[in-house]
Amino acid sequence: MRNKLQLLAIAGFVSTVFAFAQREQALEIKRLDGSTIKSSAVDATVAKLMKAAEVPGLALALFNGGNIAYLRTYGVRDEQKNLPLTVDSVMSGASFTKVVFGYLVLQLADQHTLDLDKPVYEYLPKPLQEYPDYADLASDRRYKRITARMLLSHTSGFANWRWVEDDRKLKIHFEPGSRYAYSGEGIDLLQLVVEAVTDQPLEKLMQKQIFQPFGMTRSSMIWQPSFERDYANGYDEYGRSLGAQKRPKADAAGSLLTTPHDFALFMQAVMQGKDLSKQMRNQMLVSQIQILSKHEFPTLDDDTTEQNKPIRLSYGLAWGLYWTPYGEAFFKEGHDDSWRNYTVCFSKSGDGILIMTNSGNGEGIYKALLETLLGNTYTPIEWEGFTPYDQLPPRPALKQHTQIKVDPNIFQKYLGRYGNPPNLILIVRQEGDHISVQENDEPKEELFPESERDFFSKTADDVFTFEIDNHGRVTRMVLHTGGRDIPLNRID
User: Fold this and answer.
1) Strand partners, 258
2) Which of 413, 410, 416 shows the shortest CA–CA distance to 428?
3) CATH 3.40.710.10: which residues of the chain?
4) Nearest to 150, CA basis, from 124, 121, 180, 171
5) pLDDT band at 483 (very low <50, low <70, confident <90, very high)
6) Residues 57, 76 contacting (CB under 8 angstroms)
7) Domain 2-102+200-391 falls in which CATH fold?
8) What would the pLDDT profile of 257-280 be if each residue is shown by its tens digit?
9) Start-end ranges of CATH 2.40.128.50 in the chain?
10) CA–CA separation, 286 vs 151, rounded Å?
11) What's domain 408-489's architecture?
């Protein structure tokens, strides 16, 4: 039934914006090689791929000459209510956040508020190691070499996130500036510096410098009440709804909440160099570091390859870069639980594409969309890990769980905080006949009992087990996920 409703929604809900209506039937969009594709062919291609890959909702923008040439949405933002995705539906930008934040940083550099090559610790009012989140770096003085340029080009030496480390501590893995390794931790450090040097919170800065000037009226770094009227739920690979990402705290690495309309405006502004000097925009799209890694993730993998040398794969300031016979391209991915986004634009022609989906299956159709709609066959698909949907192995069958009734009073002994402060804190709360767990500022996850000590999620493969000592005290909980057992000690 879910698939049937999804197909009906994809066929029935197609929306558009701007003044395209009067010329929509005959609209043709230029591709990189100068050929054109009709809007009807674009729509047919998208609908076919969404059906095949089981993608509930998708937004598409195509750019010609540095301007938005086509903007449409397909499918649903809420399957249960059968609500269409619209160009004004608020979606998670995921790591699109990094390029919007990066643009802000370059504006500050233009204004001489920040020097891209000055060690960032020098901007802070107290030593970096005195900040709880960076105490782990006290014994490694290499942090004094890290600059904003390194953080924007992902050459700081940090892992993507500290929680992937065996001890969950922040480390510098190589000489800062010497190689590429994508890092959300590096972007978060730069956020600390930006807020310190401007004495303003990130949300206020983004509204003032980016969102308002670019006309992004439904974008924010935190959830806004006005978003409630039109927002998208995210769906995992199995079609389970994970809801919306209602972020309460601004995070430069991933908390952007935006719409297809708004982010298309941002991409148009980037291509036009809006509110950025020509010199700074050129710096943004100049290679800072050549990329020789075989894959983008895991970020610290030592495997290298010559495969991407023909396209000169590299990283600029916040953007990935590569070369083609049609000129240089800049790109960015956005990947989070149940959200898959991608954009690439070509500097010389001003042609490009923006894809935003509310599905864990979204990456499986990137290759076909890029090649068919844009005529771009140069994307480093393998390096980015975008396996086409028809080449993926069968999905593992979901483990079946049975919810049982448990005396709610039993939950009381499980409530509290677990983890490794200050880096990782999970809070367990009672929710009537079940409990919830919330990691830091992430959305909470509902957990249901299958025994008095084991709780499962209905929207993920996570299972939590509470461990009790001989005195009946809960000492820790263990997260079972992805074939791993992750112990989380009780804090209080």
Assistant:
1) 91
2) 416
3) 2-102+200-391
4) 180
5) confident
6) yes
7) Beta-lactamase (3.40.710)
8) 999 999 999 999 999 999 999 999
9) 408-489
10) 15
11) Beta Barrel (2.40)
